[in-house]
Amino acid sequence: MASSSDRLPAPSAPRRPSPGGSTPHPAAAGRHRAAILANLPGVLLAAVAVGFATALSRFVPALSPAVVAVALGAALANTAGVGERLRPGLAFVSRRVLRVAVALLGLQIAVPQVLALGWQTMAVVLAATGTTFAVTPLIGRRLGLAPGTSLLVATGVSICGAAAVAAMRETADASDDDAANALSGVVLYGSTAIVVLPLLGSLLGLAPAQLAVWTGAAVHEVAQVAAIGAAAGVLAAAVTVKLGRVILLAPMVALVSWRRRASAPAGRPPVMPLFVAAFLAMVALRATGLVPDAVTAAVPQVTSLLMAAALFGLGTGIHVRTLVRGGRALLLGGIATAIISAVSLAGVALLV
Fold first, then answer.
1. How much is the pTM?
2. Whole-number Å distance between alpha carbons of 267 and 29
3. What is the tens place of the pLDDT at every residue in 66-118?
4. Disordered: where is this region (predicted)?
5. CA–CA separation, 245 vs 156, rounded Å?
6. Which of 7, 71, 230, 283 has its CA 20 to 30 A from that of 240?
7. What is the residue range of 214's domain?
8. Does the residue 18 lie in any domain?
9. Is 31 part of any domain?
10. Overall domain count for the chain
């Protein structure tokens, strides 16, 4: 007869801890692997689109990689369509990659250079941006647009184009259709400004300094401002004014989030999204002077690539039929562009 000790199971070998001190859970590792594989097709497609957009922008400097990427995404959505295999990866780049790009945008802003513009220039920027941001949603309401669409149009036109639309989308709890409608108007009118604004400046007899401030205070995208500034010989001044507007992205997003918290006592959103707080942290870090010159020189290129990938993903949500049926979003974008152009031009005439 076997003893009781013979009937006991043999002790199992102790599990070796991982180098970090904890044993990885097989199920968790499997989920991560599955997520990576699910995202891979869409991410690879976005990478190809970014490569094409970057190459095209080198031949046509007036077209930034972000603008080209939005157009490519829209073209794909309205021709071949976006298959289910691509959707997880495109959602990843339009959300996660976007947050990294917005945070890195803060490293491009040199606060001392912005402050050196003087109070007159900053007054023009604040008046034009604030007026457009406040008035555009009111006009959108009169046009019968969804609040999310109106808010995103206001943000994109008044601050920094497609990047601002993408950054505000989560805070505003806007839908993909809202973002697509806002993006289409921002891209259309911002690109048109590259041709129209210098012609108007010449007809009005603006001095180079005045044209630089008007360009930086009125045109949507940083790349579009750079294209106008380079052609007019006011590149550095125009881009610096534009970056003064970009700084306002964080306060605007925080303001919208604060208003949502006040109106939603249960399940309140954060005062400021973490990626916007990271943007402010990057601005502060750049202001300390501790960031090496090699890093600040490389950041614009890295940010441009990441933003282009994110905007390609957002562009796949733009459907021409929806835009044609809802042309009021394009109308609102045109009205908002006219407002910021007129207010900033008046400020330039009075103060610069």
1. 0.77
2. 31
3. 878 888 988 898 888 888 898 899 889 988 888 888 888 889 888 888 888 89
4. 1-28
5. 11
6. 71
7. 39-262+271-318+327-351
8. no
9. no
10. 1
pLDDT in tens, 270-309: 666 788 888 889 999 999 989 999 999 999 889 889 988 9
The answer as to whether 14 is a domain residue is no
Q: Which of 243, 241, 207, 246 is nearest to 344 (CA)?
A: 241
